[in-house]
């Protein structure tokens, strides 16, 4: 399947250019400049140069006459949607394999000795998302934990704490590149997330927890400093 609009040799029609077309072209030029600054073509896994000397997008199966045309394509809806689909698929596969690149859930055993005799009702469901602050580019993690079976959500709410690699007893040998974020809410099991051992921004609005009593969902958002 090849996108006809991007076939080699296709050109804009000649003749007068309306102001709408003009501004659209200027917009594309700006996008192209932006793309040229931020994309390293050598590292783009979807760009392929074919034997005719033109370029192909392996993600969208489109043809492009030159690098700039390809870059412009990468800023378009079709390619962006393709990237989003691919990312969602990879995240799903990673979840099925029980891994993500910076963190993994683990059972926390430290500091639970007093409550280990109580009946546990399993782990809460959770989602972790990574993003970047649009202004400072600081890395941001959001943890969302679900406690649907909790009876007394109004009086009991999840608590969190950070633990160093040397304090925890689950992973040996300890790896000082990581720290652990523990989230506890009995009778659920405490879960621990392994995150980079970097300073966490405790400034206003930078570290936020929220307990939704109705939905029984706990959300924690954190930003790393620097
Ligand atoms: Zn593409």
UniProtKB/TrEMBL annotation:
Compartments where located: Nucleus
Annotated region (Disordered), positions in chain: 1-28
Gene3D superfamilies (UniProt xref): 2.60.40.2690, Classic Zinc Finger
Tagged with keyword Zinc: yes
GO terms (BP aspect): mRNA processing; RNA splicing
GO cellular component, one term: spliceosomal complex
Domain Matrin-type residue range list: 55-85
GO molecular function: zinc ion binding
Coiled-coil region(s): none
Keywords for the protein's UniProt record, in alphabetical order: Metal-binding, mRNA processing, mRNA splicing, Nucleus, Spliceosome, Zinc, Zinc-finger
Similarity comment: family membership: Belongs to the SF3A2 family.
PANTHER family: SPLICING FACTOR 3A SUBUNIT 2 (PTHR23205:SF0)
Protein name, UniProt field: Matrin-type domain-containing protein
Species, as recorded: Discostella pseudostelligera
């Amino acid at each position: 399947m090849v996108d006809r609009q991007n076939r080699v040799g296709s050109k804009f029609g000649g003749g007068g250019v309306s102001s709408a077309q003009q501004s659209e072209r200027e917009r594309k030029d700006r996008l192209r400049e932006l793309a040229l600054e931020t994309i390293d073509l050598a590292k783009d896994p979807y760009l392929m140069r074919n034997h005719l000397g033109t370029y192909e997008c392996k993600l969208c199966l489109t043809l492009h006459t030159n690098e700039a045309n390809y870059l412009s394509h990468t800023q378009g809806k079709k390619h962006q949607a393709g990237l989003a689909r691919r990312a969602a698929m990879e995240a799903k596969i990673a979840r099925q394999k029980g891994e993500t690149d910076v963190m993994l859930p683990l059972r926390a055993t430290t500091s639970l000795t007093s409550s280990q005799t109580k009946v546990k009702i399993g782990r809460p469901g959770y989602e972790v998302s990574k993003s970047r602050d649009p202004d400072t580019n600081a890395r941001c993690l959001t943890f969302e934990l679900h406690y649907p079976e909790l009876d007394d959500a109004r009086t009991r709410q999840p608590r969190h704490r950070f633990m160093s690699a040397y304090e925890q007893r689950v992973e040996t040998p300890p790896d000082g590149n990581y720290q652990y974020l523990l989230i506890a809410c009995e009778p659920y099991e405490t879960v621990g997330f392994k995150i980079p051992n970097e300073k966490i921004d405790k400034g206003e609005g930078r570290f936020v927890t929220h307990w939704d009593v109705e939905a029984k969902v706990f959300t924690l958002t954190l930003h790393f400093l620097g």
